[in-house]
UniProtKB/TrEMBL annotation:
Cited PROSITE patterns: JACALIN_LECTIN
Originating organism: Sinocyclocheilus grahami
Domain Jacalin-type lectin: 4-143
UniProt name for this protein: Jacalin 7
SUPFAM superfamilies (alphabetical): Mannose-binding lectins (SSF51101)
Amino acid sequence: MSYPTTLGLIGGGGGASFSLTGENNGAGLEKIGVWVGEWQVKAVKVWLSDGRSQTFGNPDGPYQEYMFKPGECFTSLSLWGNGAGTRLGAIKFKTSESREFFAKMTSWGLKQEYPMDVGSGYCLGVVGRAGADIDSMGFMFLNAVQSTVLTNVNYPTINQLIPKVTVEEIKSLTYKNSSSITQKQTIETSKTITTKSLWSVTLSLMATFSMEWRHSHAKEMTGEQVFHYSFS
């Protein structure tokens, strides 16, 4: 079974569990502050885009923070334990703005690096365990969107819309009836038109619209239209 988020925890098993994420409302990580000690990450403060913020652990020691720009996402994340299996030891990440953040314990050397899966790069917040220090912690990410399908789309007022299009003659025929007998002349043609539009959002969204109509003066009209949306 696939899940919409990805999360990996590094550190020990002590302390009490904590969580501050936008998993339920889509809020993202806006700012993070980290205090470090000689052999551990002492505390972490997290700000989310919905206005919530919270501090985990006891703030003490050297401090550094990182403010994310609008639309800025993670491109990589690595976490380290403290080498004794009891605490979080370091946090390092890079972003889509080619910026980097690196906070690590000041005395003990780093040992095993754990590269984490950042999914789509959109961070929803943090989850972990803490007491006086950060025992363990991980970042929750939204997984990459594979596809999106719209079904049962209803346009109740579409017949009231006036298309803003340029009129183009695609076929014409002149016929003169020189007799007194009623005659019928039919002209039929078809043309396929495909348009593409691209909008810039947090994730890229491509919409493709294809329409084909057949029309004749015998009051016969058939048509087909297809919509396709995809995220990447």
